[in-house]
């Protein structure tokens, strides 16, 4: 007899640690085609005071991840990466990670969140725009493959 698959549970967001590395790398290679974060970079970000890696899980499975950078003396935090697993999309994983990233930035006394989004990425643009992010510029050739990025920012005050 085979066990029924577990039903989707509540999405839980927490800080990543080294045990998440394999799952983070699997997610990264499934979701992104350019500008991938390597295992060594993930490991450094997990250990760094100037970075925060968040994971969204449900029943122990990794559903999504976010990477946030802080700079000493800067009032801005930077959301460098946000991804949800293809099979988990539309369940609020991206929004939960974004909320947790903003809460973490506020706890670090950051007044602003900055991020870049690929010009062609309408889903992510909609996520950010409906959560209060304002577009304020274009960075031509921002991505490793030459793609252009829109710059967004949100006042966290
Ligand atoms: C962008 C991404 C993180 C959204 O993750 P998700 O878990 O599906 O997002 P959620 O279910 O929390 O949806 C949040 C909002 O995103 C927007 N959104 C998500 N999928 C969308 C789609 N296919 N079309 C339009 N808007 C979409 C909606 O505004 C949605 O809000 P709503 O449910 O209140 O309408 C996910 O699609 C992803 O990982 N994409 C590939 C990687 C990527 O583009 N990362 C962002 C780089 S800046």
**CATH architecture type of the domain at 12-113:** 3-Layer(aba) Sandwich
Q: Counting H and I runs of at least 4 residues, what is the number of helices?
A: 4
- Helical content band: 25-40%
Largest sheet: 7 strands, mixed
Distance separating the two termini: 55 Å
Radius of gyration: 16 Å
The mean pLDDT is: 95
Biggest sheet strand order reads: 1-2-3-4-5-7-6
Q: What is the CATH fold-level name of the domain at 12-113?
A: Aminopeptidase
Structural class comes to alpha+beta
Q: Name every ligand kind in the structure.
A: coenzyme A
Order of helices and strands: EHHEEEHEHEE
Low-confidence stretches: none
Overall, the morphology is: globular
Number of strands: 7
Strand percentage lies at: 25-35%
Name of the level-1 CATH class of the domain at 12-113: Alpha Beta
Corresponding CATH superfamily of the domain at 12-113: Gcn5-related N-acetyltransferase (GNAT)
